[in-house]
Amino acid sequence: MAPPPWPSCSRGEILARELRLYQLRHGRRLSTAGAAKLLAHMLHPFKGTELCVAATLCGWDGCKQLVLSGPSLYYVCSDGTRLQGALFSVGSGSPYAYSVLDGGVRWGLTVEEAISLAREAVYRATHRDAYSGNCVDVYHITSHGWTRRDREELREENMYSRLSS
Protease as a keyword (predicted)? Predict the structure, then answer.
């Protein structure tokens, strides 16, 4: 049996709609773990097809009743994989990004240090991997919500000026 056709809107829009419906039905937000499970179930019909999706899902669960309160990060793949962890890099450039992240990630990074490290990891991935893009989207997630930094296009001349300063 063929999987159902994927709608023209993005997976993010569909997931956001389902999360909002959950909130309206139950009067509370779904946990990040629950959202990761929902996304995995949404992608399950596409297992073994030409559609391959790998995504990171992060959030801050603030509900006191939940065992999983605080920040959480999940990796979800259309092959059925769903993992919780502290650090993920997704895509064909991941090994290059991990080489930067493994050397620079530590507890206690300031927000600016973390953003700089993320930029460098994406830059290295795009520089070495022909299939990676060259833009970085940075989201900062706290217990008070999330903010999105402006999308940046990573050019070699910009990165070298940032790295040298």
Answer: yes
